[in-house]
Amino acid sequence: MEQRTVLVVLFDGVQSLDVTGPMEVFTGASHCHGPDEVPYRVRTASLDGAPVRTSSGLTLVPDTSLAELTGSCGLTGPAGFAEGAAPHTLLVPGGAGTRAEDAELVAWLRAHAPRARRLVSVCTGAVLLARAGLLDGRRATTHWAYCDTLARDHPEIDVDPDPIYVRDGHVATSAGVTAGIDLALALVEEDLGRDTALTVARYLVVFLRRPGNQAQFSAQLSAQTAQREPLREVQQWITEHPGGDLSVDALAERARLSPRHFARAFQAETGTTPGKYVERVRVEHARRLLEDTSDGVEEVSRACGYGTPEAMRRAFVKALGTAPAEYRRRFHSPLTTHP
């Protein structure tokens, strides 16, 4: 079995869960195999090998320094990684520390990160990759709060604010914090197969695996809360009655507004159209029914206001990149082994 080195870059102000979440996934995958077959060797490194303090105050002691890994005291020299030190996966976490202009770390990434076979960022780790020019011409994501900034500062990057993670060739970027676990599980599944990834997910008590193009937010969190009471009541009504008549005319009548006025006011106050809001609510409700009940796809589609299974299938493929039956199969796949 090929052993893949996973190198996690540390720096002051790093988000601790961006580091430990993916590390638990990769080391958990190794625990699924015998002592003679360890698929991942996980290492951590800071610039000088000194301990770093995370954004939550936790102190992390790295295994080594980036200088040692690159075979010299010059962090940005052309020599590259020392023999046998080039990682299979180089993971750059995020955190408040990415907002500091750490020219030395960015220079190291620019010089040496391209030598990794797989380049991964969690949360605002994408900001460091962007500064190093490693995301130029690629599609990428980051924590929702920093997507606009990343797109503004780096117009050469196709920033997608919606998915929890994005794959573009050998480069993978993820959204905030726990999305790094989802991405790590996807990488383990790619490397070692679904059974191993399912085992790790069960041990960590997480869902394997949220589709990468699943939205970072629920419909209620994605949209702003309307300021006016009638519109807030309509938002709540949509959430509580996804199978009802949620046409603009019906919702406008509930808000005691004309359809045209309602549509304008709803978008102005929530940041999305009534139709898009209803679509997100219905997909989320359908997901919960598929996860938590044994109702058939046809029954779920009626309960969520789709009318036909085909209409729900189209909505699922558009929103999640998978059909309802496949979504349920992934969620309820049996887990038979334990690390």
From TrEMBL:
Name of the protein in its database record: Putative HTH-type transcriptional regulator CdhR
Boundaries of every HTH araC/xylS-type domain copy: 232-330
Keywords, alphabetical: Transcription, Transcription regulation
Lineage top rank: taxon: Bacteria
SMART domains on file: HTH_ARAC
PROSITE patterns linked to this entry: HTH_ARAC_FAMILY_2 (PS01124)
GO MF assignments: DNA-binding transcription factor activity; sequence-specific DNA binding
InterPro entries: Class_I_gatase-like, DJ-1/PfpI, Homeodomain-like_sf, HTH_AraC, INH-QAR
Keyword Oxidoreductase: no
PANTHER family recorded: ARAC-FAMILY TRANSCRIPTIONAL REGULATOR (PTHR43130), HTH-TYPE TRANSCRIPTIONAL REGULATOR RV1931C (PTHR43130:SF3)
A Pfam family of this chain: DJ-1_PfpI
Transcription regulation is among the record's keywords: yes
